[in-house]
Protein: tRNA hydroxylase
Organism: Marinomonas primoryensis
Amino acid sequence: MLSAYPELVEFLPCESPKAWVNWALENQTLLLNDHAHCEKKAASTAMNLMYRYVDRDNLLHKMSRLAREELLHFEQVHKLMRSRGIAYEHLSASRYADGLRKHIRTHEPARLIDILIIGAFVEARSCERFAALAPHLDDELSKFYISLLKSEARHFEDYLELAQEYASDSIEERVTFFRNIEHQLIVEPDVEFRVHSGPPMQV
């Protein structure tokens, strides 16, 4: 299913653990709830970048489009939840995003570059997870998650292209740095299930 996006597959350090896929299938109410939160946070991230970096024309263009698409995805997830009688509730964040963001450098343009690279990892991982789940879900959810792959893959490309555009030299070293962290976050066990959590901790 991800064969159409070889650059995305190569970018990620690993596939999602099978134990995480099984965990997601056992917690589909929580999956949809956290998915809705993820879409809202993604829109917020794009808007924050637009407010902070008003002099970056290409960033403004790409993030404006991305924010609209993420909010549309939020509306679609929320509609699915309502049709299934699932309440939209507050959830604590997974350690995934914070585990990446705590390594963001504080000086510019390094800060922007790191945020954009992290954005690329978040979007790529979301795409990979939707593809991993789709074959195992009911028809409605499966079709919905498959429909998200193209936009998530494009968001990954947008973030990575912007990171390279605004860097003074190659970003490969920084990408490798965050790839190693992302790998650790994806394979290490978690206590709570989330869209971007690791596999379940064995007790």
